[in-house]
Amino acid sequence: MNGKLNLYSYYRGMYQNCADPNGSCWGDGFPCYADQGQVFCTKPAHRPQAGKTPPVMQAGQWYCLEMMVDAGAAVSQEGQANGVQDFWINDVEYGPFQTLWHRTTADLKLSILWMNLFHHDATHSVAGILLDDIVVSTERVGCGAPPTVQPPLAPIDLRVNP
Questions:
Q1: What is the pLDDT of residue 15?
Q2: Which of 69, 9, 17, 19 is closest to 39 using CA atoms?
Q3: pTM of the model
């Protein structure tokens, strides 16, 4: 993704990286990119929309990220699926990604929010992320006013006395 943020998820109807002949799949990324090695982005509606490619994230900058998942109806076939995922960066929408087959039973509900930084290449950097003002809601909250506080800087000329 070349530093671009995407909405990566595991769900019932995953299709983008299912090359394993035994049926094992890895999660789907939204938007998906048709030219990414083993990723098989065969559904044009899941590709970036014109003029809506997520930005390359920059270190030392705060971003407002919002994500939405609607599991849709519990259906027995992918052709009936109506699940939706969407995300916004600084109030700019990069979806919605629709007709996703999330579940076959209404008993399956979202149960975890997992926020992390993952490096997909062989070498991992020392990069990290800072998280603040986390909100879980049943409707979109919005970003509001931009932050007035800059991210903390590394200490300069730090000394430790014995």
A1: 85
A2: 17
A3: 0.76
